[in-house]
Design a protein that fits this description.
The chain is mostly helical and about 270 residues long. Helices cover about 75% and strands about 0% of the residues. The chain is built from nine helices and no strands.
């Protein structure tokens, strides 16, 4: 559970941000830079790379091979599950990232900061923006989760990784789960959804639609009806951070902080 003081602080920061924007006191967002790809390129990357190759073909092709390798190596449960999750996620990342690399290679010289605009430096300001946005997003996602529980009684835990973390007491296995959730997933997902999809959609439809479309696809791509609304709200917060600050690195840090809080909460519940 999120402490009430944290929720109140987040609400206060959110109201302050809305008041500043309504009064016209917030700074203008910087130009949103991203790779000059087209709609078909994005469909190929997300539908072809992320969904078909990553989420459908990778488990079918890689999971049996990885299972056999772990068996031959003598790795047993629960470490077996941790290594399996880490290996499958690395395999899931490979297809879409290879497609993206090939797409970017033909674009010519990249602008300052690169096509994806990670812009980690200065790291302190990126982390502060991520923390501030995290506090503002927390009450909204909590409200979305509460509303979802009122209208849909099936719960929101359809992600199998959540159950594995909750039931694991093996430190090496937890390290594999944690690295996947807190490091790999934020880097990979933010590259796809806020690094590519958002600026491409924003260039064609406008910034607001870019934020909304990237958040909606982000939520749907997790294939979890029980988490759809909270993930949509989280995606809106991540998209707003990318649009308002221009830095993809801040989005990665916010995503990592969010997953880190979720992971820590599950570990504490399990222990």
């Amino acid at each position: 559970m999120v402490p009430a003081a944290v929720l109140l602080l987040g609400i206060a920061l959110l109201l302050r941000e809305l008041w500043s924007r309504w009064r016209g006191r917030s700074p203008e967002p910087p130009p949103l830079q991203g790779p000059p790809l087209g709609g078909l390129d994005v469909v190929l990357l997300i539908a072809g790379g992320f969904v078909v190759v990553g989420e459908l073909l990778t488990p079918l092709l890689v999971a049996p091979w990885l299972s056999g390798l772990l068996t031959a190596s003598g790795i047993t449960s629960p470490l077996r599950e941790g290594v399996s999750v880490l290996g499958l996620y690395l395999a899931l990342m490979a297809g879409p990232l290879l497609i993206l690399v090939l797409q970017l290679r033909g674009l010519g010289p990249a602008p300052e900061g690169g096509w994806l605009q990670f812009r980690w430096s200065p790291l302190g300001s990126a982390l502060r923006r991520a923390l501030r946005t995290l506090l503002m997003v927390l009450p909204l996602v909590s409200l979305a989760g509460w509303l979802l529980e009122r209208v849909w009684s099936e719960g929101s835990g359809s992600n199998p990784l959540l159950e594995l973390v909750l039931n694991s007491h093996n430190l090496p296995a937890l390290a594999c789960f944690g690295f996947t959730a807190v490091v790999l997933a934020p880097l990979f997902e933010e590259t796809i959804f806020r690094g590519v999809l958002l600026p491409v959609a924003a260039r064609q439809l406008g910034g607001g639609w870019g934020v909304l479309i990237s958040a909606a696809v982000f939520a749907v791509a997790h294939l979890s009806l029980g988490e759809l609304l909270p993930l949509l709200v989280l995606g809106l917060g991540l998209g707003w951070l990318r649009w308002s600050g221009g830095r993809l690195g801040s989005c990665v840090l916010l995503h990592a902080l969010w997953n880190g809080l979720t992971f820590t909460n599950l570990v504490l519940l399990g222990w």
